[in-house]
Specification:
381 residues, alpha/beta, seven-stranded parallel β-sheet, three-stranded antiparallel β-sheet, 16 strands
């Protein structure tokens, strides 16, 4: 049995990690600030086998109170998603980067020599991996509003403008954050790398792809696309899918993500990053239709998903993961099939709404103007 600190352990992914650790007999301490942007109240699903500390991780006193005696730090806390707009920039930096810097400083002061697991994200890659038939692997240029307005969603080769083929992204792909959230996750990884150069620790970075499942927050601009689509379906409204719906992602059940965290906690061997994904890419439109089918809807139904052609400049076109390293080194393979996971998710309990009156606009990802092409709300991939 080891003593594990799980930050953000009252949240969506963190709470499942807590459950997995308690089940196997670890001594679990949770620190969470119950951020009102994600929590309307204290969740009902808190595990009685863990000890909970309600505090702000931006304060050094919080870390000083919980770090002594800890063998493992599993850092799940932070603001996720694209947020509302750039006005969220300072909040993301404070809750993601400042809190993590304060935490690492506290571990330094405590001469911590245990294990660290950092929850990161696929967003650090920016666009995924692309191959040109002539020029091989290339990095596409940022997408332009003029192209997106015209419905040209696929990036072209920067050398010859030829169509590119998307490939699975390995962990050694270049880092290229395209929005504020992505920039904060890159900085968290870099801070951890700097810490590891000076300290004798085993550290694992887990780059989550599109996680869905029980306890996702509903009706918040920080929720994942699966939760927003489900909220629309529960209201009897069809999910509105941005672009042409063909953008590719890896959707992974939260149970598989929790298992990856347990494996990372047990891993030895310095600093290493791993993709956490299903390894089976699906389009956003395909996900919306699978979820609608799980609600017993059929094409032509009033609530069947609608592809809007709208877009968000902060989004990327295709990003899906290579899971070879995680399989070979962590022994982690996703076991929840996509269709089964969508059926489960259609009936899973979600976290209570934060601001119910905003749910309709957030689920659409659209503007009020019928002719508008750019989606101004957040949460729809």
């Amino acid at each position: 049995m080891r003593s594990v600190l799980v930050t953000g352990g009252a949240g969506f992914i963190g709470s499942h990690v807590v459950d997995a650790l308690v089940r196997r007999g670890d001594d679990v301490v949770v620190v969470d600030n119950l951020d009102p942007a994600a929590h309307a109240s204290q969740p009902r699903y808190l595990n009685p086998g863990a000890r909970y500390v309600w505090a702000d991780l931006r304060h050094r006193s919080t870390w000083a109170d919980v770090v002594p005696g800890i063998d493992v730090v599993c850092h799940q806390a932070g603001k996720v998603g694209l947020g509302v707009d750039f006005g969220d920039c300072d909040a993301y930096v404070e809750h993601n980067d400042q809190a993590w810097a304060v935490g690492l400083r506290s571990l330094h002061d405590a001469r911590f020599a245990g294990t660290i697991v950092l929850a990161s994200s696929m967003v650090v890659y920016g666009e995924g991996r692309y191959r040109c038939p002539t020029h091989g692997l290339v990095a596409p240029s940022p997408r332009l509003a003029a192209d997106l307005d015209a419905g040209r969603f696929e990036p072209g080769c920067p050398a010859c403008a030829a169509p590119l083929a998307a490939e699975a992204v390995p962990e050694n792909a270049p880092i290229d954050p395209r929005n504020v959230y992505a920039a904060t996750k890159v900085h968290q990884e870099h801070l951890l790398a700097a810490f590891c150069r000076e300290h004798d620790v085993d550290a694992t970075v887990l780059r989550y792809h599109n996680v869905y499942g029980e306890r996702m927050p509903r009706d918040t601009p920080y929720a994942g696309v699966a939760a927003i689509f489900r909220s629309a379906l529960e209201r009897g409204a069809g999910p509105l899918v941005n672009e042409d719906g063909r953008q590719m992602r890896n959707f992974v059940d939260v149970a598989d993500v929790a298992a990856a965290n347990v494996a990372a906690i047990d891993r030895a061997g310095g600093l290493r990053a791993f993709n956490v994904a299903s390894g089976e890419p699906h389009s956003v439109g395909e996900m919306a239709e699978a979820l609608a089918a799980a609600f017993d809807l059929r094409p032509g139904s009033l609530a069947w998903p609608e592809v809007t052609g709208r877009y968000r400049l902060g989004d990327v076109r295709h990003v899906f993961a290579s899971t070879t390293r995680a399989a070979n080194e962590l022994g982690c393979r996703a076991v929840v099939p996509f269709a089964e996971g969508m059926r489960r998710f259609a009936r899973a309990e979600l976290r209570d709404p934060v601001t119910p009156t905003t749910s309709a606009s957030m689920a659409s990802g659209s503007t009020n103007g019928a002719s508008a092409k750019r989606a101004t709300t957040r949460g729809v991939a």
